[in-house]
Every structure is written in C-alpha cells, then in structure tokens.
Amino acid sequence: MRHIKLILLGILVLMTGLWLAAEPAAFQSSGFFVVRGAAVQYTGVIAMVAMSVAMMLALRPRWPERWMGGLDKMYRLHKWLGVTALVVAVVHWLWAQGPKWAVGWGLLERPVRGARPPIANPVEALLSGLRGTAEGVGEWAFYAAVLLIALALIRAFPYRLFYKTHRLLAVAYLVLVFHTVVLLNFRDWVTPLGWVMAPLLAGGTVAAIIVLLRRVGAGRQVKGRIAALDYYPGVKALETVIDLPSGWPGHRPGQFAFAMSDASEGAHPYTIASGWHAERPQITFITKDLGDHTRRLKEKLSVGQQVRIEGPYGCFTFDDDCRRQIWVGGGIGITPFIARMKHMALRGESPDWPQGQSIDLFHATGDVDETALAKLAEDAAAADVRLHVLVSGRDGHLTGERIREAVPQWRAASIWFCGPAGFGAALRRDFAASGFPVYQRFHQELFEMR
User: Fold this and answer.
1) Which pLDDT belongs to residue 25?
2) Which residue, 27, 94, 247, 400, is most buried by CB atoms nearer than 10 A?
3) What is the membrane topology noted in the UniProt record heading this document (predicted)?
4) Please, are residues 78 and 58 in contact by the beta-carbon 8 Å criterion?
5) Dist. CA 403–CA 364, nearest whole Å
C-alpha cells in the first residue's frame, strides 16, 4: 500500500514540477484570465497523465507487479489514478467553462485581444487550426469519461455491465489525447514536460488500442476444461477443478488467475486453491456465492466445459524469513492458505520455506459446512499447520487480542491476511497499536478489482 501511495504522490509532484519549469511565469502575471489559462493547462496535464498511467496499468503488465506488491495493488493504483483524473478533469472543465458562463451573466468582462501575428511554424499552424475541433470533441469525451469512471466506482453497478462499459473509456481517452496534443501550449512540447508527456500519451494510446481489440493479457491466457465440480452448501462455495494444457506456466500458492466461462460476463479474478504439479497440470478455484455471477456458477458450469484462464498474478506468496507465520483467512479468504498447505504437504521432506517455520492458521467464518471444515483440517494436519477455526455465531469474532493470546510469539511472526477489507484494516490497526511493524510484516491482499 505504501508503494502505491508514494507512486501516486510522486507522479503528481513530478508533473507539477515539470509544468512549473515549463511555465515559470504562469502565475506571475496579473489578471484573472491569465490565471485561468494557466489553470486550464495545468489541470489538463495532470488529468491526462493520470489517465495515461491508468490506461497502461489496465494491460496488467508483468514488470511492475513485484515492485508494487502484486496486481491487486496495481489495480488499486489504477483506481486511484482514475479518481484523480475524474476530480482534476472536473476542475479543468470548470476552469474552462466557468468564466464563459460568468461573461454571459455579466459578472466578468471578456478581455480585449489584439491581432495575433501569423504562425510561422507549420506544425503549430496546423494544430492552431484544429483548436475548435479539439475543444468540441474534448468536451464530449470529458462527459463520457466522467460518466464511465463514476459507473466504475459504483459498487451496485453490475460487473457484467461494468466489464462492457469500462472498455469504452479507451475511446474517450483516444479523443482526449487528440484534445491534449492540439491544446497543450506548443512551446511546452520542447521542454522536459513535453518530453515526458509525449511517451505517456503514446503509451496510453497503444494501451487503449489493445483494450479495444480485447487483447489485454492475451499472452498469459490458456484454455482449460473443467474436470470436477463440488458444491458445499453450508458455506455456499463451489470448488472447480480445471485441467490445463502445457501452456500454463505454473503458479505459486497464494496467486490468483482470471477465469472466463461466459464471454458476455467477462473474466473474473479468483484465488487459486491448489498447488502446482507439472506432471498433473490442474488448477482449482473455490468461489463463494457473493453476487449474481457467482450464485449462478453452480448451475452454469458443467464437467467437460471449456474455460479460459489467464495468469498467474499476485505476490501473496508467503515469502519471508520469519520462523513463525500467522495466517488469517476470513470467509472465502481461506483459499490461498488451502493452496499453500497443499503445496507444503506435497514438498514434504524438501521444503522451500525456512527450516522449522511454525505456522498458525486462523479461519474466521460465519458459515459452517462440516465436509469443508473436515477437508481444511486434513490439509492443515498434512502441512503441520496449527488450525484455529472460529465460527462467529458460536465463538464470537476474531480479534487481534485473541490471536496474540493463542500465539505468544506473535512479535517475531509475519502476518498474512486474506478476507474482507474492513476486517483486515481493523486487524492491521490493532496490531500497529500493539507495536507490531505492520509496514514490514503485515501482508494483505486487496482483492478488489474495480
């Protein structure tokens, strides 16, 4: 989380510095309309930089994932960049339109402009001739972008519609690139501001085209076939085992993948609930009835059905040198820990984790399925993991205090949490208040992809 906050702040500070260097006299002149022109330029630059980086992150690139802590963190940055672009674009629009309204209402007097000298540079002259068109189409693209970003932020908006409409942002973005190229002060293109803006706009343009061609993640996709389906009614969860071809690169416990069984619904991310065996290439997902799509899966899926898998993604892979780990799985958040325990049982005598590492797994759940809990207990026993199951209606809620009581050596441990975001945030605050180094040793997956 700290990395993505620093990245967002760094982008804003860097671009503000470059803009001030390119326009040092922007706010030194008197007059409202001079300030207005500078504000329109500045907010336009910030909004387009945020949209450009967000557009490139939408491609799910490999190289920044490890540094940012996983694709889930990258998507959180993508979301924050979208919110930043939305807010700054609205401010940009108000600076552009507000003074026009004020002039129309008689509150401001439009400044008198003298004759402009002819433009000698042919490129600048061409762009100048396109200003009216760029302003017109840019305004409509702004309205479309605001609507589409707002819909993406509304959790009640169905995922299947979000999947279809969010792609249209790429069209709005391409129009706004044209708007920016034409209306950015021509002299700024030969400054460091322009040298940064140009590759960002180019990268965003390529990304937008890839999005529109539906080629996002194409190089990491394979087609699999459902081998088995098991439904656990007590916890309303479906276990799906999928046979994979040789193209799957393998995965590590704790990673996730995108799976698509219905093209109209699009691909959904699911944590992988199985270890990787090259001689038996399969992948297992456990999905809980949390929405319209997941509730329908048990009726829509069938053994032998073909599905498309993309991945693997994520860095929630239990990598540290701590001799003790504390795992906390809230509800369906137990999934990555199941995968890790299966991996540990498979490795047996040749562990790829610190020798003698001790692990306590806390599973907090409001639902009970005896068959599912029995399988969980078997996995824990096979991996030599101490299992603590807390059913909220019977045992009360899991708290930091209860974890510390059960694991007296908690100060030397690392904590790995997967579950509801609010639950994770509460545990993080609780342990931070007790002096635990949460920035270094509290690992939480932000499993929200919109």
Assistant:
1) 79
2) 400
3) Multi-pass membrane protein
4) yes
5) 11
Instruction: Give all domains of the chain, ordered by start, each with its CATH number.
Output: 1-112+119-213 (1.20.120), 219-313 (2.40.30.10), 324-445 (3.40.50.80)
> 354 is written with which tokens?
């610190």
Q: What's the DSSP call for residue 362? A: E
The four Cα atoms 67, 68, 74, 78 give a dihedral, to 10 degrees, of -110
For 88-106, how does the pLDDT look when each residue is reduced to its tens digit (9 = 90+)? 999 999 999 988 888 889 8
> Long-range contacts of range 182-188, CB-CB < 8 Å, 24 or more positions apart?
182/127, 182/130, 182/131, 182/133, 182/134, 183/44, 183/131, 183/134, 183/135, 183/138, 184/41, 184/44, 184/45, 185/22, 185/23, 185/41, 186/121, 186/123, 186/124, 186/127, 187/22, 188/22, 188/23, 188/41
pLDDT less than 70: residues of the chain: 1-2, 27, 29-30, 114-115, 447-450
Structure tokens at 344: 């540990």
First to last CA, the chain: 16
Give one DSSP letter per residue of 207-229, joined into a string.
Answer: HHHHHHTT-TTGGGEEEEEEEEE
pTM of the model: 0.88
